[in-house]
Amino acid sequence: MNAPLAAGGTPRRAVRREQLSDEVAARLRLDIVTGVLRPGTFIRLDETAAALGVSITPVREALRTLRGEGMVQLEPHRGHVVMPLSRTDVEDIFWLQATIARELAASAVAHISDAGIDELERLNDELAAAVARQAVDEIAATEFAFHRAFNRSTGRIKLAWFLLHVARYLPGQVYATDPQWGTSAVQNHRTLIAALRGRDVDTVVEVAAGEFGDGARRLISRLTESGVWR
């Protein structure tokens, strides 16, 4: 029997496998970026599959993705090994995000509607409530939704798409566990929203890019304390 088709004609089984592969890649990428998986560590297919509760296939596909990103390297007869992630690598990742964010922020001032600003305010209120409850998953999801709404309001869909893909290296779950970061994010969003209502381009650009600068400092501090660069 053939696998049922999802919208667009793709077999549902293939879609699910692709989703699993993406989820595994996201988990491994997070562990590499945050120093949980240290440089030189071999990622074993069977052990990783068992730990994540999946089959070996999505793990193998996830490692192929990470190999293309330079996060791991395949050593013949030995397996996939985690590649070094330097402080400069981290700075470059966040520099790229901040650079794209500046362009999107300037466009947002010119294109976002009053209704769009109201939606950002609603999402930030949800974020504030999640931070107050220390609901980590909700914090991460709502923060993502806020920035997705903001980026879509710019009308620069391709540029927003590039930022989304670079943002894979930003460990949202790690930031979401930090109450200080959550409080700061809510306040930054309020400043951003007020600047959008006043059509204050300079402040919107400064706040949008500044969030990535803050994210870089926090991640670099975490990695330094963990001894990953020692």
From TrEMBL:
<protein>
    <submittedName>
        <fullName>GntR family transcriptional regulator</fullName>
    </submittedName>
</protein>
<dbReference type="GO" id="GO:0003677">
    <property type="term" value="F:DNA binding"/>
</dbReference>
<dbReference type="InterPro" id="IPR000524">
    <property type="entry name" value="Tscrpt_reg_HTH_GntR"/>
</dbReference>
<dbReference type="InterPro" id="IPR036388">
    <property type="entry name" value="WH-like_DNA-bd_sf"/>
</dbReference>
<keyword id="KW-0805">Transcription regulation</keyword>
<dbReference type="InterPro" id="IPR011711">
    <property type="entry name" value="GntR_C"/>
</dbReference>
<dbReference type="Pfam" id="PF00392">
    <property type="entry name" value="GntR"/>
</dbReference>
<keyword id="KW-0238">DNA-binding</keyword>
<dbReference type="GO" id="GO:0003700">
    <property type="term" value="F:DNA-binding transcription factor activity"/>
</dbReference>
<dbReference type="InterPro" id="IPR036390">
    <property type="entry name" value="WH_DNA-bd_sf"/>
</dbReference>
<dbReference type="Pfam" id="PF07729">
    <property type="entry name" value="FCD"/>
</dbReference>
<dbReference type="InterPro" id="IPR008920">
    <property type="entry name" value="TF_FadR/GntR_C"/>
</dbReference>
<keyword id="KW-0804">Transcription</keyword>
<feature type="domain" description="HTH gntR-type">
    <location>
        <begin position="18"/>
        <end position="85"/>
    </location>
</feature>
